[in-house]
Design a protein that fits this description.
It is a single chain. This protein has one domain. With 144 residues, it is mostly beta strands. It starts with a strand and ends with a strand. The protein has a six-stranded antiparallel sheet, covered by helices on one side.
Length: 144
């Protein structure tokens, strides 16, 4: 089932430790949250498709340009995108295609589409992190 992400202030947090070259890298978990669909994706620095969480954590821990990442844990997540947001797409994530909304409506338009195991890595330069609700679909991990 393809789902949309809606913005919400609700979140739950936890701390996750990852081994990084014989030292601990700590991440704060924002469960069920993803980079909001209307946010500025110009701070996206890398995308990986269909990888396990521990590999995403290792990538983030080893790369100083990454401040946080969004890991798709559910099925398919569709983030509808307005036409004026194309310039905020440094990794070419925006596609024009047909998808099904949470309400079961078939729509055609521009969207960023992610599947289980997809990860987008971001820097937080200029404080561009803007998270929205992604219940059961995505978690965000922030370096501490």
């Amino acid at each position: 089932m393809i789902s949309s992400v809606q913005c919400s202030a609700a979140s739950s947090t936890a701390t996750v430790n990852v081994l990084k070259d014989n030292s601990d890298e700590t991440f704060n978990l924002r469960a069920n949250q993803a980079q909001y669909k209307e946010s500025d994706y110009s701070n996206a620095v890398r995308v990986e498709r269909s990888i396990p969480l521990h590999i995403a954590q290792e990538i983030a821990a080893k790369d100083s340009s990454i401040d946080y990442f969004c890991f798709v844990k559910g099925g398919c997540m569709v983030l509808e995108t307005a036409p004026d947001k194309y310039s905020d797409d440094p990794l070419g994530l925006v596609e024009h295609r047909t998808y099904v909304t949470d309400a079961g409506q078939v729509e055609t338009g521009h969207a960023r589409i992610f599947n289980h195991g997809d990860v987008v890595f971001f820097n937080n330069q200029d404080n561009k992190m803007w998270l929205g609700e992604a219940n059961g679909l995505c978690d965000t991990y922030i370096k501490s």
